[in-house]
Write a structure and sequence with these properties.
Helices cover 52% and strands 14% of the residues. The chain has an 8-stranded mixed beta sheet, with helices on both faces. α2 links the parallel β2 and β3.
């Protein structure tokens, strides 16, 4: 992270759950000062944990945190959004940047509850943020400018990779990368089960399945080659791999994955009331 972007700025988290913790961990690892970070969290045990582990300021007063912060990061449950935003309106002036990781909550929805001119950025990270390996999408609200978007990009680059999309694409992001880790976990579990079915010990099967997925993903990321080309390189004529791929094709593997993303995307729209 370029330190000049956050120098002198205070970041206030409204909500101190797992995703907020992941972001705090990432930006601290990038060189931000703990003294510049404050967290409003209703659960006392959670406040104590965050304060002791990360040396951030933790309290239970949303208004105080928002008033003191230059960047307000909304990390509360989506169903709490309207109430929390309403309570913060007096503290959120147009010189502040609001960044939201509230799933399904649009920038337009947030802007309705905040003062005119407040800049809003909507962010969709996924759970690997907890190990600084997130896939994150960001989109700007009506008042947010290029500098605001770049600041959000730099913050979330501390917990993984970041892409910029339009707001209309956020449901697709939710279906693909937001829900995607669960698809991959299920695939790893299925590979491990198959290994056990064919005589491997569970620990061995799981280790092989896990490293196979990690290694394959790294090959795509580091080689720059299309996944289809990499697949071709491991598929010998008349060999074992083509036999397995044939079975996946008969089971509509790729179509089923696409259907899963479609279903999650549709559900994302339903939850957002679209």
């Amino acid at each position: 992270m370029r330190q000049d972007m956050l120098t002198g700025k205070k970041i206030g988290f409204i909500g101190g759950g797992n995703m907020a913790e992941a972001i705090i961990k990432g930006i601290l690892a990038s060189g931000a000062e703990a003294s510049a970070i404050s967290v409003a969290e209703p659960l006392a045990s959670r406040r104590d944990y965050l304060a002791s582990k990360y040396a951030v300021v933790a309290g239970d007063d949303n208004l105080k945190v928002a008033t003191q912060a230059d960047i307000i990061l909304m990390a509360v449950k989506p169903q709490m959004a309207a109430g929390v935003l309403t309570s913060l309106k007096s503290a959120v002036s147009a010189d502040k940047l609001v960044i939201s990781i509230m799933a399904g909550i649009t920038t337009a929805f947030m802007e309705e509850f905040l003062a005119r001119g407040v800049r809003v950025i909507r962010v969709m990270p996924n759970t690997p943020a907890m190990i600084q390996a997130a896939a994150t999408a960001i989109c700007p609200g009506r008042e947010a400018g290029a500098a605001d978007l770049e600041l959000a990009r730099e913050i979330f680059s501390a917990v993984g990779s970041v892409v910029i999309v339009s707001e209309a694409q956020m449901d697709a992001v939710t279906g693909l990368s937001g829900s995607g880790p669960a698809y991959v976990f299920t695939f790893i579990e299925a590979l491990s089960d198959a290994g056990v079915k064919n005589g491997l010990a569970r620990a061995t099967a799981t280790e092989l399945a896990l490293q196979t997925v990690i290694g394959a993903a790294r090959m795509v990321a580091e080689s720059g080659e299309h996944p289809a080309l990499l697949k071709e390189k491991v598929t010998s004529p008349g060999g074992t791999t083509i036999a397995g791929l044939h079975t996946l094709e008969k089971g509509c593997f790729r179509g089923t994955v696409m259907d899963a993303v479609d279903a999650a995307c549709i559900r994302s729209k339903e939850l957002a009331g679209k």
